[in-house]
Design goal:
Length: about 240
C-alpha cells in the first residue's frame, strides 16, 4: 500500500494520521527538493520508529522504485505542503491505481489554501504560476502570460517564487515586465505565525523587500470585491 502524506507548510504540520502511517510503515521516503521549508525528519523518524530516506528529483521521477515496494509493503511517501499540489505526485498516485496498488492520501496545509490569509477569496484565484530564477539572464514569458490571462477575466494570480528566491530579486524581475504602479500582495511564510503580508504597488514593495523571508509568493489581484479591498487595507504599505 502507498501512503502519500503531506508535511504541511512548517515543521510539525504533519497530520496525526500521517504519523500513524509512518509508525506502521515498512519503508518511508521523503521528497523535499521542490521546497525551501526545513522539516525535522530525523526527529520525526525517532518519534515514529521508521527511518526516512530523502529522495532526489531523479529518484522521484523514476516512480518504479516507489511503486515496486508499495506492491508488497506499507510505503509512506512524504512531500512538502499538500500531497497533490505537484503533478509528479498525482502521476505516482494514478500509476499506483493502474498497478492495482491500494493508496491513501493524507492531506496537509498548502499554499493554495494559506493564500487566503492575505484577505483575497481563493474562489477567485485563476491559474497559479511560478516565477523561475533567470536562466542566462532571461526569464520566460509564461508566468506573465498567466498573469495577463487571469487579469482578462478578473481573477487573482498566485505567483510562487522559485526555491530560495528572495522577494527583492522577484520584484526586480517583475518590475521589468509589469507596470511599477501595479498593485500586488507580497507574502512570505504563509501558514505560520511568522507570516508577513504587505499590499501596495510594485514600486512601494521594493522599499520593504527586506521584511520578507523565504519561502515567498506574490499575488497579482484581479477584480477585488469591497470586502477583499477592506481586508487588504490592513496590509497596506
Amino acid at each position: 500500500m502507498l501512503h502519500i502524506v503531506g508535511l504541511g507548510l512548517r515543521d510539525g504540520d504533519i497530520p496525526e494520521r500521517g504519523k500513524q502511517a509512518l509508525e506502521e510503515a515498512d519503508v518511508a521516503y521523503a521528497e523535499l527538493y521542490t521546497n525551501a521549508i526545513t522539516y525535522d525528519l530525523d526527529g520525526l523518524a525517532a518519534r515514529t520508529g521508521t527511518e526516512i530516506t530523502v529522495l532526489d528529483r531523479q529518484d522521484v521521477e523514476d516512480e518504479d522504485r516507489i511503486l515496486a515496494e508499495a506492491a508488497t509493503k506499507q510505503v509512506v511517501f512524504l512531500v512538502s505542503g499538500d500531497p497533490l499540489t505537484a503533478t509528479t505526485h498525482q502521476d505516482i498516485l494514478f500509476r499506483a491505481h493502474e498497478h492495482g496498488i491500494d493508496t491513501e492520501i493524507v492531506h496537509a496545509p498548502s499554499i493554495l489554501i494559506a493564500v487566503a490569509e492575505t484577505g483575497i477569496s481563493i474562489y477567485k484565484l485563476g491559474r497559479t504560476t511560478t516565477l523561475p530564477e533567470p536562466y542566462n539572464g532571461t526569464v520566460p514569458d509564461s508566468p506573465f502570460d498567466v498573469v495577463n490571462a487571469n487579469q482578462e477575466t478578473g481573477l487573482h494570480t498566485l505567483m510562487l517564487l522559485d526555491i530560495g528566491m528572495e522577494m527583492g530579486d522577484a520584484l526586480d524581475i517583475i518590475s521589468d515586465r509589469l507596470n511599477p504602479d501595479t498593485d500586488i500582495i507580497a507574502a512570505s511564510q504563509l501558514g505560520t505565525a511568522a507570516r508577513t503580508i504587505r499590499y501596495g504597488t510594485i514600486a512601494d514593495m521594493v522599499g520593504v523587500a527586506d521584511v520578507f523571508d523565504v519561502p515567498c509568493s506574490i499575488i497579482i489581484p484581479g477584480t477585488l470585491s469591497d470586502n477583499e479591498q477592506e481586508r487588504l487595507s490592513a496590509f497596506s504599505v
